[in-house]
């Protein structure tokens, strides 16, 4: 191919999936020169892909085995590491049961797994690592609006039957079976609608402000032991508690008022 032809062909960095597809077409008998014209690259680019076919197919197989993204251009083996596989499985399990997972949760779990596998002594689970992890697995940070995840009634019914069988099998006293659930209480919040004139396209106004607490209720199955409510607020010392000497609840504070492992250990 002439030098002018090489300059006319822009350099293209194929993804692993695209390279595997090219290899498949080559195996089916298509010519390298025809594929080079189709993708507007030099013939040497197609030849290099064919020469590295073993590594490309291994990379694609490794990514597919751990549900990785084969649309990436390079494979460094991160997705197939024990730490990464167990972390993404843990994340998916948390989301499947409707639990919230934040970036902080992922970092903490990654540090635990790194210690478990003794993978890297200098591993810090930094913000850069977190961004790369989310990009590798297509994890997006979305605002939580409402609980829209439908309930899987089949799984719920099966769990209830298994629990009853387990209780009967072990003759478990109902006094020793506990259940807890959390809920949110917006005790002060601005209206979410605003009166607007005809020439306004949006109902403008101040930013939506609300004061919210999270409440955890827990009791045993017989109802003989009701644990005081666990309340999580935003402020360390709310003004309403200023003159109180005794609270009938257990109060903790958090900037986002979310229930997390640290607060539960208290």
From TrEMBL:
Query: Is this entry keyworded DNA-binding?
Result: yes
Q: Which SUPFAM superfamilies match?
A: Homeodomain-like
Q: Enumerate the GO terms in the molecular function aspect.
A: DNA binding
Q: Please give an example of a GO cellular component term from this record.
A: nucleus
A Pfam short name: CENP-B_N
Matching InterPro entries, A to Z? CenT-Element_Derived, DDE_SF_endonuclease_dom, Homeodomain-like_sf, HTH_CenpB_DNA-bd_dom, HTH_Psq
Which UniProt keywords are given for this protein, alphabetically ordered?
Answer: DNA-binding, Nucleus
| Ranges for domain HTH CENPB-type | 71-143
Q: Where in the cell is it found?
A: Nucleus
Membrane among keywords: no
| Source superkingdom | Eukaryota
| Protein name in the entry | HTH CENPB-type domain-containing protein
Biological source species = Microctonus aethiopoides
Q: What is the lineage of its organism?
A: Eukaryota, Metazoa, Ecdysozoa, Arthropoda, Hexapoda
